[in-house]
Every structure is written in structure tokens, then in C-alpha cells.
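Hi everyone,

Forwarding the result from last night's run.
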Amino acid sequence: MAAELIDGKEIAQQVRAEVARDVAAWTEAGHRAPGLATVLVGDDPASAVYVGGKQKASAEVGIAGFDHRLEADAGQAQVEALLRELGDDPRVSGILLQLPPPPHLDAGALTEMIDPAKDVDGLTPISAGLLAKGRPGLRPCTPAGVMEMLRRHEVPLEGAEAVVVGRSDLVGKPVAALLLAENATVTMCHSRTRDLGEVCRRADVLIAAVGRAGLVRGDWVKEGAVVIDVGINRTEQGLTGDVEFEAAAERARLITPVPGGVGPMTIAMLLRNTLIAAQAQAGVLA
């Protein structure tokens, strides 16, 4: 079996087009344009590129951008003050603190400073609690992107056995909760999981989100499974995922490539979250 590729670039473009349409309808109805505030502390080149990409994508769909750059030696109090200011600014629908910040800053404490109503990254404790309780809220962008890909490919999740390799707050835990909400039977694996290969072989839907190149071997993939590779690893051979792609693609029904799979979905879902946040803050259901 040669797997069909899940084209994240194409799906992301579809989502962006939908957000642009909905933002236009929102403003034409007399509402203020949604606003995304990004906060970058320091001059890390990769982070600067990510933030620039988010602001560019926002402008393309009609979302107002508020780009805040602080020096690398900015103190905890200075960053917290900016986050409070953005929380009080009615023009700002969503706040995104680019992670990780410089090591002298407490990233967890800063994340908790973000107004949950504007938490378009879905990472505050309140956002995590709403997800865990199955209540409406803003969901982390990458896990939301994974679910969007599964939905658009009409992958049946109810009753399916889903295996998530990785238990990070950013991807593993929230994607497991989202799968549970769709009535999948979810197993979460991690560094201490015994017989990892055997667990993976049971999966109808296998999601790898560890950050270790080629950790998930091709023969761990069940015939006809759906494989979502969230990992992005820089190797001598270039960017690779957490899954042995060629071998896995011989067994899977659907599989995401790296690059071009999950990655493009993250910004697309950020844009959608920003619009959802604006609608909620205006008291209008999305």
C-alpha cells in the first residue's frame, strides 16, 4: 500500500481563505477588525522569522497586527506589564507570546499573565482546563491543525484506537484531549512506555510528536493506519519528522510529509483562533 499524502499546505490555504472571508463579513457587519498582538523578547533569528510570518499572514486575511519587540535583557516585570496592557486593549483580540523567551524569564509565569479570552495559543492553565473539561475555549494551534486535517480527510475517529507518541503541553496532551472529545480510544506514549512499537502497531490513528528523528519506525505502522507526523528535526539530510517516512508510507493509508504536513496548519489555526476570540469578546457566537 502506498499512502495518500495529507497536504498541509493546501489545507492551510483553504483555512486561510475561509478566515479571510469570515473576517471580511465580520467587519462589513460593523465590527472592529480582529487584532493579533505578538510579543517577542530578544533577537533570536528563528523566532523573529516565526513572528514575522504570523504578522504577514494576519495582514493577508484582514487581521490587524500589533508587533511588540523587546530587548533580550527585558525584565520579567517589563514583559508582564506589556501583557497586562495588551489584555486591556480593546483593539487586541489575541495575544501571542513567542516561546521560548530568554532563559532569565519565567515562561510559565508569563503565559499565565495572558488574558484567557485572548489566549490564541491555547496554552494558559484556564485554556488547558477548559479543554480537559470538554468546554468551549481556544485550543492550541498545532493540535487544532491536526484535528482539522483529520476532519477534512474524513478520518473516522469515533471508536478508533488512537496512539499519541509524546506528552508535551504544546501538542501531546491537548491532541489526546481533542481525540477523546471525538470519542476515540486514546493511548498516550512517552519515554517510559514499554514495548512502544507494539503499542503503535495497534493504532488506527498514529500521531508522533516527540522531536526525535525517525523514532517511529515504519514497521510500527498498522496496515491502513493514518499517520500524523508533528515532529520537525534538523538533520544532515535536511528536515525530517519523527516517523520513518518511506517505510511508513508503504503501510499507511494516509500520512503527512515533513515538511509540508502539519507545519503550515499552525499559523492557519492561529488566524482562526484570533477571529474566534474577537467574536467571543463581542458576545457573538462563532
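The radius of gyration is 19 Å.

Cheers,
N.
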